[in-house]
TrEMBL record:
<dbReference type="Pfam" id="PF07859">
    <property type="entry name" value="Abhydrolase_3"/>
</dbReference>
<dbReference type="InterPro" id="IPR029058">
    <property type="entry name" value="AB_hydrolase_fold"/>
</dbReference>
<dbReference type="InterPro" id="IPR033140">
    <property type="entry name" value="Lipase_GDXG_put_SER_AS"/>
</dbReference>
<feature type="domain" description="Alpha/beta hydrolase fold-3">
    <location>
        <begin position="195"/>
        <end position="335"/>
    </location>
</feature>
<protein>
    <recommendedName>
        <fullName>Alpha/beta hydrolase fold-3 domain-containing protein</fullName>
    </recommendedName>
</protein>
<dbReference type="InterPro" id="IPR050300">
    <property type="entry name" value="GDXG_lipolytic_enzyme"/>
</dbReference>
<keyword id="KW-0378">Hydrolase</keyword>
<comment type="similarity">
    <text>Belongs to the 'GDXG' lipolytic enzyme family.</text>
</comment>
<dbReference type="GO" id="GO:0016787">
    <property type="term" value="F:hydrolase activity"/>
</dbReference>
<feature type="active site">
    <location>
        <position position="210"/>
    </location>
</feature>
<dbReference type="InterPro" id="IPR013094">
    <property type="entry name" value="AB_hydrolase_3"/>
</dbReference>
């Protein structure tokens, strides 16, 4: 597994190092990556072959070191359209490859659907059942990069884990499908899509990580204010980007860089330096009352940890009582999305998400049953 993870790290390095038109830029980045990987190995051996943190693995350390060097060296370039297109294309290929194995492992089919001129991905159980539940997932990537296919492995594992939890809690076999939505438009642009599938709000949980988590919050706030009857059952946020104040403290053990995050914020919200323009793009400063239950998962080593921390504090200040906060002390940004063969602890994060989702789905069913009897 270490060799496989090392191969993925090298593939990521080559992918990023070859996207620059100037040869010297590529040489510099690749050299820094080699130094970082070598240093990681040496430090691992010096610690007595122990990982940097108790819940890390050598495989994750290697990949983490590669990503960190890339974001620190040329992270701000990733927000430009030319570089974003390149990274999206490469992440599409990598996600398709890893996702193929995950779909086989978790008995999922991958179906492509086009909506609003964009490609979205359905991950469905290969054995359809009468009752269908859905996780509508908005992926991360700084509002401009990464492909939804990169999240195929996470989606397949999450769906299978929720199905297992539902079986244990209710004794029934229920279908859980995951829709991986493309990020380049706000979720409200295609919020009506679930109704085309014959799905009721009580059958759907809205989820997202990083920038996608920020879009989840923006979506919830806009739907609450315009069509509250269409609010979905619940929401799950993984390290959401929800604060445009850009005053994050240094985070030496996270692969995000300050320059990259500022570039993404500027690309997403050009006037982000003016708080009067933020509105729901910075939901940590919004009124959070009247939203469905929210599960908020954070890693304390995350560069944008304070985004989620401030969001939770604002919810508490607003008197919100239906949120759950899940903090992991030695985890960096979006740790749950990494393949478990790279970071075994990622499954802990997925299981936490699954437990919340299963409980929410069953509560929604109970409420629908009571409403049907009352009518």
């Amino acid at each position: 597994m270490t060799l496989i993870a090392s191969g993925i790290a090298i593939a990521v390095a080559v992918m990023l190092a070859t996207m620059f038109p100037v040869l010297w830029d590529s040489v510099l980045l690749f050299t820094r990556i080699i130094v970082a990987v070598s240093t990681t190995f040496v430090q691992f051996i010096a610690r007595g072959c122990a990982a940097k943190f108790p819940n890390w693995s050598l495989r994750f350390e290697l990949l983490h070191s590669v990503i960190r060097v890339c974001t620190e060296t040329y992270g701000e370039r990733m927000a430009t359209e030319r570089h974003a297109q390149w990274i999206r294309a490469q992440s599409d290929v990598l996600g398709s490859l890893l996702g193929w194995f995950s779909c086989r492992r978790f008995n999922r089919s991958l179906d492509v659907v086009h909506f609003n001129g964009l490609e979205h991905v359905w991950l469905r159980n290969k054995q359809p059942r009468p009752k269908r539940l859905v996780v509508l997932y908005l992926h991360g990537g700084g509002f401009s990069v990464l492909s939804p296919r990169l999240y195929t492995s996470l989606g397949a594992e999450l769906a299978a884990t929720i199905e297992r939890d539902l079986k244990q809690r209710s004794g029934r076999d229920l279908n859980v499908d995951v829709m991986l939505g493309l990020l380049r438009q706000t979720a409200t642009r295609w919020y009506c899509f679930p109704s085309r599938e014959g799905l009721a709000p009580s059958q759907i949980i809205l989820a997202g990580d990083s920038a996608g988590g920020g879009l989840v919050m923006s979506t919830l706030l806009r739907v609450r204010d315009s069509k509250p009857e269409q609010l979905l059952l619940a929401a799950m946020l993984i390290a959401p980007a929800v604060d445009l104040s850009s005053d994050e403290p240094d985070a030496p053990h996270c692969f995000l860089s300050r320059a990259m995050c500022k570039a993404f914020s500027a690309a997403y919200h050009p006037n982000y330096s003016d708080p009067s323009t933020w509105e729901d793009a910075s939901s940590a400063q919004c009124d959070l009352r009247g939203l469905p239950p929210v599960f908020l998962q954070l890693g304390r080593l995350d560069f944008i940890f304070q985004h989620g921390d401030r969001l939770a504090s604002k919810a508490n200040a607003d008197g919100v009582t239906n949120w759950e906060l899940d903090v992991h002390d030695d985890m960096p940004h979006v740790f749950s999305i990494f393949p478990s063969f790279v970071l075994p602890y990622a499954h802990v994060g997925v299981q936490k998400l699954s437990t919340f989702a299963a409980k929410s789905f069953l509560k929604g069913e109970d409420r629908d049953t009571r409403d049907a009897r009352a009518n």
